[in-house]
Amino acid sequence: MSALETSRLGWYTRRISRMSPAEIVWRARDQALQAAWSGSRVSRDQVEGAASGPPGMRAFAAVLPSQVAARVPDAARKAVLAAADKLLDGQWEMLGVLRTDLVRPDWFHDPVTGRRAPADRHAFRINHRAEADTGNVKQIWELSRLQHLTLLATAWFLSHDDLYARRAAEQLQSWWRENPFLSGVHWTSGIEIGIRLISLTWIRRLLNDWPEVCDYFERNELAARQIWWHQRYLAAFTSRGSSANNHVIAEAAGQLVASCAFPWYPASSRWRQRSARLLERELIRNTFPSGIGRELASDYQCFVAELGLLAAVEAAAAGFPLSDEAWQRLCAMVDSGAALLDERLRPPRQGDGDEGRAILLDAPAENRWPSLLAVGECLFGRLVWWPTVTPDAASSIIAAMPGANRPVTGRAAERPWHFADAGLTLLRTGNDREPEIWCRCDGGPHGYLKIAAHAHADALSVEVRFGGVDILADPGTYCYHGEPRWRSYFRSTIAHNTVEVDGRNSSAEGGPFLWLRHANGNELEVQDIGDAAEWTAEHDGYTLLEPPSLHRRCVRLDRASRTIDIVDEVAGGSHEVRLAIHFGPEVQAELHGSRAMLSWPAACTPGAASLDLPEPLRWSLHRGETDPILGWYSSGLGRRTAAFTLIGCGRSAPQTPLTTRLEFLRVGEASSPPGKKSAVRLGTEAPCQ
Questions:
Q1: Which overall architecture, per CATH, does domain 419-664 show?
Q2: What pLDDT score does 689 carry?
């Protein structure tokens, strides 16, 4: 047996260990069904002769009211058209890669590795996790979500320039021809199929007044078969058990949207009812009552909320609204997101993030939360403590759907800062005259379900911002597939602002999307007395060490002195410890013994700080290192940049806490490290981007 085969066998063994008996039975059923479906594959040369599933009479449901395009703000309209014009030239940035080949895209080409994924092989015989077979599958899948075509359709909707509509229609036809049922890598994942159905629905909706639209949808047998094939797949295969995270939300949302918008098939009513029940159940399971996503990954909370809202709006427009409980939970997701954002409307960088979105109706933006809040403001109404957001194309168009407005009662009268069910606490200043100090503390569970696929080993980590600038930074994600060393690093304990004990992660990694043992956080005390706010928690990730240990951390924000104290204690014997402190890419750091001087003069909110470090530890400064990997920051999937990191090494001792003090300096203040004459002065504040 080769090393690769041994590695795969080990992964499958570990993966099965995280499944319940019921899940193993369901997965065996899926394998049997896949074998039975082997004869259902339609090759490219069979497409024209394939039997048509839908009936002869077809009509698209829930078109947009007239005059909706006029409601889109002019700035959003101009941005959409500018992005669409670049698409017409073939330019599009995806996951950190600028594509210039999208005039006639190759749906199977990976621009990162240069490989081409299988196009003619049966989908169930493709291992999409193997980069040697498929290339970077995220890059390949991303294009086939067809969200660049929803942008082109939006551009036509706003301008009625037929160049946009024709390009979208041509590429739709190309995708349908190149991807017959169960042929190729685009039929290997239900989440991709669900998102693609949402895109198809909105492309059709936005092009409704284009004279040729029916030629590409209702009167197009290939289109009708593709929409049928997509829904047939989702009706047969559903993410279950340890995989029922955001994937099952996308599957259910896609099926519900398509069965409402394209009610052309004998099974449409059954698909709609089943997917609505599934979506309602899984929305509740995937989120805490507070609205925080149970995956504890901020990017995925936004993604799940977008999926749920689109499906709920579609069902309401079709006359089959979701339950009050589902709408309540969707509203809670938006409200909690509004509470988490810093003064620049940036969310926490907790857990994995892959820039996944449910739909694209605006020019692409790095941060999708302001757009989600704009949609939420139209659907639920704005609370007085919400940050101010600007209406965009998505909020203007989605809110125009029939039955979209949905008032929800029982919402928070004041901005929440402690989400006890998720173990997430925000310590922040509230003085609008000065840059905000924002500190996220993580004292909750490791992640969602037994595999916690999108969690990081970040127990008791903190994330600190000054005026929206990353100071003590969460590293981000960087990659999912193809670079296992980098994937492991960005998920590791040492890559987060917390304590590593005896060289081990606080949670045990079993694969790129698999955790075998989870660290459980426990918040011990959370209080806000006005001048100061304090959080204390511990986690059990090191209780299997010899001797067993608990990591306990207290974080205190003193608003008057603009300081944050972090006190760590490793209780239970003596262990080798490493305390990691990671800075954002705009922060410059100088280390002088047990003090570090920080400055970020070129940031949109310039500033400086001093960092007093625990003296029992030996401190070293790192940046952009690869052997071992240390000192990196990822702004998004496929992107990484060098950033400063401090590492303190030593041994823990009973009842000997390690105290770190971060003090933010005011404009004009100077602070010098011991034995060195130097002053840090703040420059003129630059406009935030």
A1: Distorted Sandwich (2.70)
A2: 35
